[in-house]
Amino acid sequence: MKEVSDALAKVTGQANEIFGKMGAAVEEAVKKGARELNVAEITRLSGLQIDEGTLDHLEVDRIIHVHPWLHWRDYFPWRPLWCWWWHTYHPWHRCCPYWWTRCHRFPYPC
User: Fold this and answer.
1) CA distance to 32, 43, 51, 94, per residue, from 57 (Å)
2) Distance CA 72, CA 75 (A)
3) Which of 31, 47, 75, 80 is the most exposed place for a label (fewest CB within 10 A)?
4) What is the pLDDT of residue 18?
5) Residue 67: what are its φ and ψ, rounded to 5°?
6) What residues form DSSP beta bridges with 64?
């Protein structure tokens, strides 16, 4: 089981790196005074290779209005992107290994 645990730790580290960059990109834009965020641009800055068709499939709005008094993860649509990332790059982990199983509206089933 150590191999499985090590593999999951490595993959989770990859996800954390990408989504950490996403948070940093959102926070940087907000710090510069952005009132709205382009989701496609933020995903590219994060290192996600995601196209417009995929964003349509995920039902993600292109422009997200900033709520500077909230933490970015409360208003930026990271959840469907998280599920998409797991489904695309590590489908054998069934999307998200710890949560979001069958309890969200996003198109990729866990």
Assistant:
1) 30, 15, 10, 19
2) 6
3) 31
4) 96
5) -120, 85
6) 37
Residue appearing with tokens 């510069």: 32
∠ CA 42-54-84 to the nearest 5 degrees?
75
Q: Is residue 103 part of a domain?
A: no
Residue 1 identity? M
95 near 87, Cβ under 8 Å? yes
Name the E strands within the chain.
36-38, 63-65
Q: How many folded domains does the chain comprise? A: 1
Amino acid 8: pLDDT? 78
Residue ranges making up the domain that contains 41 = 2-93
108 domain residue, yes or no:
no
d(CA 93, CA 47): 21
Reported residue count of the chain is 110
What's the CA gap between 15 and 82, in Å, rounded? 8
Instruction: Please list the ranges in the chain whose pLDDT falls under 70.
Output: 1, 4-5, 93-110
